[in-house]
Amino acid sequence: MDIMPKWVDIIVVPLISVFLAAFLSALLILAIGESPIAALNLMIEGTLFRSAGWGYMLYYTTNFIFTGLAVSVAFHAALFNIGGEGQAMIGGLGVALVCLFIPWPHWTLAIIGASVAAALFGMIWAGLPAYLQAKRGSHIVITTIMFNFIAAGVLNFFLVDVLKPKGSMDPASANFPATTHLPTFQDLASLFGFEKAFRSAPANVSFFIALLACVAVWYLIWRSPLGYEIRALGKSGPAARYAGVRPVKIIMIAMMISGALCGMMAINTTQGESERLILNFTEGAGFIGIAVALMGRSHPFGVLMAALLFGFLYQGGAELALWTKIPRELIVVIQALVILFTGALSLMVRAPLESFFMSLQKAKG
Amino acid sequence: MTENPAIELRKISKSFGPVQANKDITIRVMPGTIHGIIGENGAGKSTLMSILYGFYKADAGEIFVDGKKISIPDSQAAIAAGIGMVFQHFKLVENFSVLENIVLGAESGALLSPSLSKARTELAALASEYELNVDPDAIIEDIGVGMQQRVEILKALYRQAKILILDEPTGVLTPAEADQLFRILKRLREEGKTIILITHKLREIMDSTDTVSVMRQGEMTATLKTNDTSPEDLAELMVGRKVLLRVDKTPAKPTKPVLEIKNLSMVDDFGVQRLKNISLTVKAGEILGIAGVAGNGQSELLEVLGGYSAATGVVKLNGSEIDLSTSVSGDGQARRALGIAHVPEDRQREGLIMDFMAWENAVFGYHRDKSNQANRFFMDNNAIRKETEEKMKRFDVRPPNPKLTAKNFSGGNQQKIVLAREIERNPNLLLVGQPTRGVDIGAIEFIHQQIVALRDQGKAILLISVELDEILSLSDRMVVMFDGKIMGERQPANTNEKELGLLMAGVSEKAAQ
Asked: pLDDT tens digits for A338-364?
């Protein structure tokens, strides 16, 4: 039997991990002569007590849901996709091409077209390393990280040499036409008469697509025969072979779904926020996705929760940088601590909890 | 009698979390005897030996060697106390010579050559003393399994072991090699060594031991003089109830051929030819057994028939040829669609996904079958769970909880989950590899009954096992495989172990007569 109740594994372990990370971060903030309590207050006030704070947080959360889900799907097949950055960049290129060169009558159609393009481009970008892994045995970790650099180069080339409007000095595409602009949360709130809510915050309707993606991934992984095969291959290669699961096919499919999800992040950043294609729009979200997937235990609901936490840290961190002397770098350190504790060190938390529950069981009988 | 026991355990207890692996084990082994320890898998034999060899620390209890109380915190201490261990899986460096392996870990000084030459002289002395001849300069990977085992024994003797523990030593040996091993053990006993033999094979206990201890569920249920007991009594002590040691079956009534194999050959990924022109037929209503020492192509034959290794030749199922390419029309799922069910040799590596729950495992390989789909897109998990629970009850899987992860079941119950999955699909042909490996006696009886019942329904069964007893008692016809070839066909009733042993060792049919 499992030693710990499920809820402890899913809820208590990550919570303790986050608490430990927060504690260490507090010590760090103390060490540079700031008050951790004031810092926490500022983070919470700046993020949760203002609708614009929520708007920023959910914007980041949207990115992290997409990349977190992407990494999770690959994890289920025991593949470590650290090429989320590159896949998102190429996805962004897809979004830009579709938004710039197809005359969309309305944003509802534009978002469908852009989503398909983003997914397709990300899929292709993940498909190449997947093919190399499945057919040639080139390790996916190495190839995907190299493909991040290639993707950055491709994006650079397109922005400098192809998509940059004549006369512009900025390596960015032209602005997308207004019919492709996605309604922000502010627009949505205005519909209900709350004109001041979410003011100038970038969160937009792609957040709901991210939520839909959570549901879709849940159905894929836990209900469909394809998800069953992905999990089977991830747990045991020899067993999958015995059952007639085709490893090449499953590796390709799992990675392409992963790449598609990463690519779709671009509808939030590129179509939703900047409304044009810019350099470095991914801002490391592809890597944060790894932490989100680890913390969320590769379960869509866990990914959603972890993405909210990291959205909070991102937005709260921006507030700290703005209002205190805490340097921006320290915020990165805090995020790193959360990643370290929730991902790499979760065993450190789990082991004592397990022995606690074991002694509890013994005491009972 | 005033003589001290060579080794004595008093009230040894050890638990892992809530599981009590050893409970108040008391055992006295007199010097110069062969003492057998028998018990089902999970009875606690290995834990007990691990405590003796310093891998685990007992929660309670005392160990005495030659009447002196000692503690064994690690294997170094065990060696110092004169305890030597021969593991089931040899711990040898494959590309080292015999001599280097024997010295490894017992080198004296910083330079190797003095140790080696010292070892060479000692090895020669040991070899003549115990008739344990091996070429000290042979490389381990070039010598046979029986020889490798001798090296393990020599390793222990070189370290001045007085007490030798052997854990399931005959699992990988041919009958002839096993006989040789027991001759060596008897010789060691004559020289005053004490031997503890751990096994689940009743026959070995009866043939070679002086005393025997039976373990069940972590407890020592009895210690007996071997001469005063019988296999039936021991089996009952092991399982806790009367068990049938012979398979109860009526003569087969074979009808039309179901599986016809002609000139099947297979070359593995490393370019080694594993199957060499195999031809055989399995008819409906019969069990064809394939005997042989592990590693002579039996596994590859199952892989080819199961659809996950490509081969050349002709294989027909009910008269129509099947694709041997492992492409979509010849992979595992295509085989299942044809009605070829497969209980693989290694259930933990292949037959089950150990991290999946029982219900997920209960459709493994059949997960794309219409019967398991709720609609075009999704699996019908609720129905599968319900059906699994019923299946588990029918096959007496304990506990019958479909939500339990496969790794939490015992070996026998895991095998029953695999067997239930494959048999309940009502296949035309059942491939079975090592159906009772690592399975307790109680479950063996049940598994054998299920296989015979399937045969009686008129199904064809191809049985592969390295347990000769199992092949002899279960199959209606049998062939022996050696080095990828079929050495000959026999009727289980009209053959004997000597003849089969020669075939298993690759001595051709003519020479065997």
From this structure: 888 877 777 788 888 888 887 777 666
pLDDT at A3: 63
Q: What is the mean pLDDT of each run of 10 residues along chain A (365 residues)?
A: 70 85 91 90 90 94 98 97 97 97 95 97 97 94 96 96 91 94 93 86 96 98 96 95 94 98 97 94 92 90 93 89 83 83 77 80 63
Q: Model ipTM? A: 0.86
Domain coverage including residue A142: 63-296
Mutation target for A interface from B347, B377, B407, B431: give the one with most A CBs within 10 A: B377
CB-based contact B332 A244, cutoff 8 Å: yes
Residues B156 and B233 reside in one and the same domain: yes
For B422, nearest residue in chain A (alpha carbons): A243
Contact state of A231 with B356 under an 8 Å Cβ cutoff = yes
Q: What tens digit of pLDDT does each residue of B399-458 get?
A: 899 999 998 888 888 999 999 999 999 999 999 999 988 787 778 889 999 999 999 999
Q: Which two tokens stand for residue B390?
A: 């019923």
Question: Looking at the domain assignment, is residue A257 inside a domain?
Answer: yes
d(CA B158, CA B106): 9
Question: Is B274 in the same domain as B178?
Answer: no
Q: Tell me the mean pLDDT in the region B371-378.
A: 90
In chain A, the number of structural domains is: 1
Query: pLDDT at position A2, please?
Result: 58
Q: Is residue B369 part of a domain?
A: no
* pLDDT tens digit sequence for B301-316: 999 999 999 999 999 9
Q: Which two tokens stand for residue B80?
A: 């110092």
Q: Do A243 and B365 touch (CB under 8 A)?
A: yes
Number of structural domains, chain B?
2
The candidate with the shortest Cα–Cα distance to B48, out of B75, B12, B73, is B12
User: Domain for residue B390, yes or no?
Assistant: no
- Nearest partner of B406 among B350, B342, B361, judged by Cα: B361
- B185 in the same domain as B42: yes
B477-482 and B485-490 strand pairing: antiparallel
Q: Which chain A residue is nearest to residue B405, measuring alpha carbons?
A: A1
Nearest to A243 among B332, B349, B355 (CB): B332
Which of B333, B360, B381 minimises the CB distance to A244?
B333
Shared domain check, B262 and B230: no
* Pick from B331, B367, B404: CB nearest A228: B367
Decide if A20 is inside a domain.
no
pLDDT confidence tier of residue B264, bands split at 50, 70 and 90: very high
Q: How far is B397 from chain A (nearest CA, A)?
A: 15
Give the range of the structural domain holding residue B161, as residue numbers without chain letter.
7-239
Residues in B closer than 8 angstroms to A243, CB to CB, are: 332-333, 364-365, 367
Mean pLDDT of chain B: 89
Evaluate whether residue B383 is within a structural domain. Answer: no
Q: How many CB atoms lie within 10 A of CB A69?
A: 33
Q: Are residues B24 and B121 in the same domain?
A: yes
Q: What is the CA radius of gyration of chain B?
A: 25
Q: Confirm whether B411 is domain-assigned.
A: no
Q: Which of A97, A95, A67, A94 lies closest to A82, judged by CA?
A: A67
Q: What is the maximum alpha-carbon separation in chain A?
A: 80
Side-chain-side CA neighbours of B363 within 13 Å: the count stands at: 25
Tell me, yes or no, whether B309 and B269 share the same domain: yes
Q: What is the CATH number of the domain that holds B176?
A: 3.40.50.300
B30 and B165 belong to one structural domain: yes
Give A223's contacts in chain B (Cβ within 8 Å).
Answer: 377-379, 381
B399 prior amide bond cis, ω within 30 = yes
**Residues B54, B91 share a domain:** yes
Residue B18 CB neighbours (<10 A): 12
Q: DSSP string covering B342-370, please?
A: EE-S-IIIII--TTSBHHHHTTTT-TTSG
Tell me if A230 sits within 8 A of A250, measured CB to CB: yes
